[in-house]
């Protein structure tokens, strides 16, 4: 059936519960497919590390309801178990309604909810809280509860007594001493590539999962089913997969750049690109390369080694100035700037293609963006409306002479602004896009890379 792991609020413990379930199942060598509600990149990294399968983001704002359904039902085929990790609190959505919330996805996919509760400051009041969550939207179905941060046996007895009249099974109990802490910093959890003791951490999650859950009830709930919701069919590109003549697209992937949706990378391949993994931190720029994809990440944390790899920076700049198509998002935009000024106000030389400086600040820019493509845009047709997401603490100095988008916040009453940079064949923007519902973007990008490859061969 698959279940949705939801929290009654942010920080209730849904990531701990999700990773514990995934690790316990993986330890038994089951094949598990995970999903994540919302635009997040880092939680899916942990899912992927445990399951060895790409976690899929389910976000109806960045894509569509139809794409969410298609993605879910496509990727739960041929697996033993499947689960969805929610986002924020159960009913917390993109705006004043619950669109793109965990509840929205649970309704859309007709999945039961496993509600995670932070019990650290609750006793009998937990019953009122659970009753409210279970009756607030009668369209939702609840599989059971997970009690997190339970202080003692007596505390657990009080909680169980209060909850008993509600008739919801308690499928997991995590004590306060069971809490496993994953380090975080200015944009959330520290990614998997930066955690040297990650295997030991995953072992602890697996132990927690084995000990703390009622698997007799959980396992049947986690088995995939294909009769839960209508199946929405979307056109999927069927271009040839990469061949020796395919354009070679470098994917910046290391500790500094690792924010990519699995669907985006797969779409590049479906449109015929051959992906070449490359580390701007430690490696020379590979050759031959006909296109570059610079995703988001944490270049501000690794500004010194990025700057120190001068040969790679110069090679990227030369290739871009020679016309190489380049798609850069957020961290990628910062890398293409003249300099990156870190949190300690230290400037570091970057590629220097964009005539601007990226500077770190304390203020967080966060939220969905409605982006209308301007005629200057390379890979998005003019006047196309697409939805993206911003999540950064940097700003770029000055206004682009050739912006890509007119953007607006999720609130239709919010103000408009111009955003993005077009220089040479570079598409550089703070706005992260999911290409699932916009396959023309990777199609245009790969076509541009192919034209560049043919030009180089002429």
Automatic annotation (TrEMBL):
Domain CobQ/CobB/MinD/ParA nucleotide binding: 3-187
Record CDD domains: CobB_N (cd05388), GATase1_CobB (cd03130)
The organism of origin for this protein: Thermocoleostomius sinensis A174
Note: The a and c carboxylates of cobyrinate are activated for nucleophilic attack via formation of a phosphorylated intermediate by ATP. CbiA catalyzes first the amidation of the c-carboxylate, and then that of the a-carboxylate.
Record remark: domains: Comprises of two domains. The C-terminal domain contains the binding site for glutamine and catalyzes the hydrolysis of this substrate to glutamate and ammonia. The N-terminal domain is anticipated to bind ATP and cobyrinate and catalyzes the ultimate synthesis of the diamide product. The ammonia produced via the glutaminase domain is probably translocated to the adjacent domain via a molecular tunnel, where it reacts with an activated intermediate.
Keyword Magnesium: yes
Pfam families (UniProt xref): CbiA, GATase_3
Site (Increases nucleophilicity of active site Cys): 432
Family: Belongs to the CobB/CbiA family.
Lineage: Bacteria, Bacillati, Cyanobacteriota, Cyanophyceae, Oculatellales
Name of the protein this chain belongs to: Cobyrinate a,c-diamide synthase
Signal peptide from the UniProt entry: none
Enzyme Commission code(s) on record: 6.3.5.11
Transcription regulation listed as a keyword: no
Pathway where it operates: Cofactor biosynthesis; adenosylcobalamin biosynthesis; cob(II)yrinate a,c-diamide from sirohydrochlorin (anaerobic route): step 10/10
Keywords: ATP-binding, Cobalamin biosynthesis, Glutamine amidotransferase, Ligase, Magnesium, Nucleotide-binding
């Amino acid at each position: 059936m698959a279940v949705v792991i939801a929290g009654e609020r942010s920080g209730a413990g849904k990531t701990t519960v999700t990773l514990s379930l995934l690790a316990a199942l993986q330890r038994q060598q089951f094949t598990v497919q995970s999903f994540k509600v919302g635009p997040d990149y880092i939680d899916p990294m942990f899912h992927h590390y445990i399951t060895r399968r790409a976690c899929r983001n389910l976000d109806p704002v960045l894509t569509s309801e139809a794409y969410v359904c298609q993605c879910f039902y496509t990727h739960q085929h041929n697996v033993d178990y499947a689960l969805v990790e929610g986002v924020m609190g159960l009913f917390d959505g993109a705006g004043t309604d619950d669109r793109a919330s965990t509840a929205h996805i649970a309704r859309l996919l007709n999945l039961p909810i496993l509600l995670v509760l932070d019990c650290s400051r609750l006793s009998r009041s937990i019953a009122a809280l659970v009753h409210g969550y279970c009756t607030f939207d009668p369209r939702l179905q609840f599989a059971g509860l997970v009690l997190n941060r339970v202080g003692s046996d007596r505390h657990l007895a009080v909680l169980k007594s209060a909850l008993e009249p509600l008739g919801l099974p308690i499928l997991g109990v995590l004590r306060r001493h069971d809490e496993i802490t994953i380090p975080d910093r200015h944009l959330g959890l520290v990614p998997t590539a930066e955690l040297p003791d990650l295997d030991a951490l995953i072992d602890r999650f697996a132990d927690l999962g084995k000990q703390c859950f009622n698997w007799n009830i959980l396992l049947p709930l986690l088995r995939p089913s294909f009769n839960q919701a209508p199946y929405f069919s979307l056109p999927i590109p069927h271009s040839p997969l990469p061949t020796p003549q395919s354009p070679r697209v470098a994917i910046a992937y290391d500790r500094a750049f690792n924010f990519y949706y699995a669907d985006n990378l797969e779409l590049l391949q479906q449109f015929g690109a051959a992906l070449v993994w490359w580390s701007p931190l430690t490696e020379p720029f590979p050759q031959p390369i006909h296109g570059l994809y610079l995703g988001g990440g944490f270049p501000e944390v690794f500004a010194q080694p990025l700057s120190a790899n001068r040969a790679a920076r110069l090679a990227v700049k030369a290739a871009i100035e020679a016309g190489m198509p380049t798609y850069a998002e957020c961290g990628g935009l910062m890398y293409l700037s003249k300099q990156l000024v870190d949190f300690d106000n230290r400037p570091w030389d970057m590629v220097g293609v964009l005539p601007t400086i990226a500077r770190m600040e304390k203020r967080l820019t966060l939220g969905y963006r409605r982006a209308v493509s301007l005629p200057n845009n390379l890979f998005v047709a003019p006047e196309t409306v697409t939805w993206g997401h911003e999540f950064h603490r940097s700003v770029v100095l000055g206004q682009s002479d050739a912006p890509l988008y007119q953007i607006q916040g999720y609130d239709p009453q919010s103000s408009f602004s111009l955003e993005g940079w077009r220089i040479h064949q570079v598409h550089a923007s703070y706005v992260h896009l999911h290409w699932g519902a916009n396959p023309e973007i990777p199609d245009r990008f790969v076509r541009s890379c192919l034209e560049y490859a043919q030009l180089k061969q002429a």
